[in-house]
């Protein structure tokens, strides 16, 4: 009984910590960086929209690494970029992203775990439009400062933090996002035993 009370207390405290969540809906996963930028220009005027764009860039990367890397370059804060040849003479910092992207290449289902309604049991299958549930806590920071931490819901885990910063054009970009590259439960693969 004491253990059950402790679990309930943790759940109540965690639920009380997160403010009301916003659902960010994206009608269609873009196929290229131009489509991505069009969506970004509409959604990333809020920290939640900017966070959704980072996960969307990961989804594009899972389908097409070249276009996905361009989209990641667009979604990342300037602090995470360096001179390079990925997009508009910029690219993600190799020291940081090579580690994450090498792991991600082996687990391209990761970003699908952030889409509302997916699960390992359905192979993280999704249909469009896609939705992300993103919330803030009372400790998220002040939006007026241009720095804010948001939390994106992920299947089977506590919401994961993403530190967002607003650039000089008013677009929110991902600055600290290592939690997005943490593992999730792999999709269930059914074995067809027709012997």
Fold and architecture overview:
There is one protein chain. The strands form two sheets. A five-stranded antiparallel sheet has the order 1-4-5-6-7. A two-stranded antiparallel ribbon has the order 2-3. It has one domain. With 195 residues, it is of the alpha+beta class. The chain is built from five helices and seven strands. 34% of the residues lie in helices and 23% in strands. The termini are far apart. The N terminus is likely disordered. It is globular and about 65 Å long. Helix 2 runs antiparallel to helix 3 and helix 3 runs antiparallel to helix 4. The longest helix is centred in the first third of the chain and has 17 residues.
Keywords:
five-stranded antiparallel sheet, alpha+beta, 195 residues, disordered N terminus, 7 strands
Question: How are the SSEs ordered, and which strands pair?
Answer:
Blueprint: H1 2-17, E1 22-26, H2 33-43, H3 47-63, H4 65-75, E2 81-87, E3 90-92, H5 94-105, E4 130-135, E5 147-154, E6 157-166, E7 172-176
Antiparallel strand pairs: 1-4, 2-3, 4-5, 5-6, 6-7
Contiguous low-pLDDT stretches (5 residues minimum) are 1-14
Order of helices and strands: HEHHHEEHEEEE
Structural class: alpha+beta
**Total helical segments:** 5
Total domain modules: 1
Distance between the termini: 48 Å
Strand order of the largest sheet: 1-4-5-6-7
